[in-house]
Amino acid sequence: MNRIRILGIDTSLRSSGVAMIEVSGRLMRALAYGRIHNKPSLPHSGCLAAIHQEIDALITEFGPDEAVIEGAFFAKNVKTAMILGQARGAVLAACALRTLPVYEYSPRSIKQAVTGVGAARKEQVAKMVMQLLGLAEEPQEDAADALAAAICHAHQRGVPEALRSKPV
Amino acid sequence: MNRIRILGIDTSLRSSGVAMIEVSGRLMRALAYGRIHNKPSLPHSGCLAAIHQEIDALITEFGPDEAVIEGAFFAKNVKTAMILGQARGAVLAACALRTLPVYEYSPRSIKQAVTGVGAARKEQVAKMVMQLLGLAEEPQEDAADALAAAICHAHQRGVPEALRSKPV
């Protein structure tokens, strides 16, 4: 049975969710999940280095085949977009340096894939993620979003190659 | 005499200018400059990995004491801000992972420091950079901007500590 590992990332400067799932046919399980928490006092560059290091360490520990990020298509304004962009830059560089392809889905597609509803609330996503992966507890919000992104990408594997989203 | 090396970076996804200068008292000289050119066909993640690697290689080769980037305070729109943010994220993470402090100046301050005019045109910046560093030829535009950022930071060293800009 073709088994793959997917690294899901819900990128942000201060609290990125991260998740590693293993998919084997129709079976999915969570190997690890949590968040990269950067203190408010840490300068931007320190946050970005921490994000880079944590992603790199996860790649080393679990050897994922593919990574997924939530697409940031609707930043509120230029300043927010710049800060989120920086976090994404650290994540994408960390993955690309390890030749890990990164896929991107809109927040709506991710919610849709997990709950069946594109406009689902955060709590609904966390609850469904918990059920789908048989977790004992509801995961923290950012970790749940990272797990949801990984699950969304796992579903895409059933889609014919030509119709799948391309790596970023 | 206190001698320091400054890495200047004019960040962009496809063509970042990079420059290394050495400052010794009032003397400045360029050790290296050029640009990190990423082909239009390269995906974003590949560009970001290339930026990270080149910055890291420059740090290894020249052992700079401080780095400088041009502040991106006025991106045109959210999409541009996101893309520029990503490039900045790769640069900042690469520097921070090597514990290299990064300073930031507005485009206006950099032009002002080099030409005396905050609204100077690109060609004026390149010409002044060439004169100030005694270069044989006018540097390419992005490289000139990176050299200008480094020169701007070198000037700041004459400013009392408490009034200097803080690392990013």
Task: List the SSEs and their pairings.
The structure is a homodimer of 168-residue chains.
Chain A: E1 3-10, E2 15-24, E3 27-37, H1 44-62, E4 66-70, H2 78-97, E5 102-105, H3 107-115, H4 122-133, H5 141-156
Parallel strand pairs in A: 1-4, 4-5
Antiparallel strand pairs in A: 1-2, 2-3
Helix pairs in contact in A: 1-2, 3-5, 4-5
Question: How do you describe this structure in short?
Answer:
Chain A has 168 residues and is of the alpha/beta class. The first copy, chain A, has five helices and five strands; from the N terminus they run βββαβαβααα.
Structure description:
Two copies of one chain form a homodimer. Chain A is α/β, with parallel strands linked by helices and 168 residues long. The first copy, chain A, has a single domain, classed as Nucleotidyltransferase, domain 5 (2-Layer Sandwich). Helix content of chain A is 45%, strand content 23%. Chain A has a five-stranded mixed sheet with strand order 3-2-1-4-5, with helices on both faces. Chain A starts with a strand and ends in a 12-residue tail after the last helix. The model of chain A has no long low-confidence stretch (mean pLDDT 93). Chains A and B meet through α1 and α2 of A and α1 and α2 of B.
**Contiguous uncertain segments of 5+ residues of chain A:** none
Q: Quote the CATH topology of chain A.
A: Nucleotidyltransferase, domain 5
CATH domain class name of chain A: Alpha Beta
Chain pair sharing the greatest interface: A-B, 35 and 35 residues
Structurally, the number of domains of chain A stands at 1
Strand order of the largest sheet of chain A: 3-2-1-4-5
Main sheet: strands, sense, barrel of chain A: 5 strands, mixed
Give the integer mean of the pLDDT values of chain A: 93
Distance between the termini of chain A: 27 Å
Oligomer: homodimer
Structural class of chain A: alpha/beta
Strand content of chain A: 15-25%
The geometry of chain A reads as globular
**Number of continuous helical runs of chain A:** 5
